[in-house]
Amino acid sequence: MATKLVVGNWKMNGTIPSSAALLEAFLKDIDLAAKTAVDVVVCPAFLSIARIRELIRFAPVKLGAQDVFWAESGAFTGKVSASMLSDAGVEFCIVGHSETRGRFGKLETPASTLGFFAETDETVNLKLKALLYQSITPILCVGETAAEREAGQTEAIIERQVSNALVGIDPAELYTFVIAYEPVWAIGTGNTCSADEAQRICHLIRGHIESCCGTDVAEMVRVLYGGSVKASNAKELFAQADIDGGLVGGASLDPYEFAQIVLAA
Ligand code: PGA
Fold first, then answer.
1. Cα distances (Å, whole numbers) of residue 58 to 16, 30, 55, 195, 252
2. What is the pLDDT of residue 259?
3. What are residue 63's phi and psi, to 5 degrees?
4. Is the pLDDT of residue 108 over 70?
5. Ligand 1 midpoint to CA 74 (Å)
6. Which amino acid residue places its CA nearest to atom 1 of ligand 1?
7. What is the pLDDT of residue 249?
8. pLDDT, averaged across the chain
9. Which residues lie with the beta carbon below 6 Å from any ligand 1 atom?
10. Residues with catalytic annotation?
11. Could you report the per-residue pLDDT of 117-149, keeping only the tens digit for each?
12. CA of 99 to the centre of ligand 1 (A)
């Protein structure tokens, strides 16, 4: 069985000092859990990465980023490449989050601005390749919107997102891969997917990996659930056979709550 993994996605929150304070408070709360066999990753905003790297040097926490651009370098104003992330000590990177795909759980963004987010299956694939080239572990996010679920398209959407993301990637590169099932309607809304349903979709994802990449890879890939994970529901979710941990947004900004989620794992 794969080691459980809990990832905190801090999104666009925190100054450099407040991110450092959050990490330090979490490390204090998690003291005992440092002895447990759970992998913990935090994904701060880009500007806080260097400071968080210093603070986790001797802590059982790994560093993640929230996004990447696929080109190595060049005239791409405002972008950050996988080699820059690697240079900064980043070991994990979220790709294809519903927010970077322009799909929001509770839409507060004017429709006319959605193109700004506009991540596609193709850009997700390019980003995965760029990360793997730098030996950074991708955390690929997939998930359906409420409308897609109501239209009975959940399974088709998930399979499309997973298979398009993996086009042209050698299965041998996927042993350390992480896939997070994040139903868009559950992100930041407080509406958690039931543990049974999360298990059903995570099982579907693992089955899909098995058919395209073989049993060994399917057993090694870590499939996470994300979407309103809290201390109160983490235990039941993480107890499911195909759920290897969680991708946690809002609750990772509360050090005590995040520590409880890690303990649940
Ligand atoms: P949430 O976010 O835990 O706030 O729902 C999860 C995510 O977006 O990864």
1. 19, 14, 8, 34, 20
2. 94
3. -100, 135
4. no
5. 32
6. 249
7. 96
8. 93
9. 9, 182, 187-188, 226-229, 247-251
10. 97, 182
11. 889 999 999 999 999 999 999 999 999 999 999
12. 10
